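User: I'll paste a sequence; please echo it back and then give the predicted structure.

Assistant: Echoing your sequence first, then the prediction.
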Amino acid sequence: MEVHAADQYLVAPGEAGLLEVHALLAGTGLFPPFPPVELPGGVGGLVARGGFAQTFFFSAEVLGLTFRTPKGRRVRAGGVVVKNVQGYDLVRLFVGSFGLLGQAEEVVLRLRPGRAQAFLRRPFSGSFPRLVPTPRFLFALEDEEGPWLYAYHFGHPKEVERFREAFGGEEARPLDLRPRFPRGLGLGEGPLWDLRFRYQDGGAPPPPPPAFLRLARVL
């Protein structure tokens, strides 16, 4: 992996682990567009699903990628510089395509600065609350103790402290959820959910629109 701190971006192979990225960035004051949670498929799987738990537009955080189409064609879209918009639309189409357009081999992610961070959890009431400030990541996970609401935020120390006060709860540790989803992270009535989807062990991706299927056949 390559960290370009001055330009605030990261180049990672698709198979790179999410917690591996967090560990690499520890102490740099830069943060990736995902919480400290390991999920099946690593960075490539995350991009294919359109991110996880974010409360912002995830596609804007993917600056470029190289992927292998189902026909074996190698496609490079976007670029490592924020101002480079070459292949911009193809990047946006790939993000959240659930593997229909292929598998990511390399991903360029935008990094965001922050001087403080907090990963918290509290019992989940069944609905996602509105918090001020809004945490960058919000998700729920059911385990043997019951359902928990998790929130992760980073930024200016005063803002992070306000988030702590608004959310309450207790400190959370980085999570490795791969053992909970040995067949991959699919959509369905499972133990994990965020503001977009609920996730189960395995399962089919959401049905794509016809125009998307035509694009997949062209690639």
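The mean pLDDT is 92. Residues 115-201 form a domain with the Alpha-Beta Plaits fold (CATH 3.30.70.2560).
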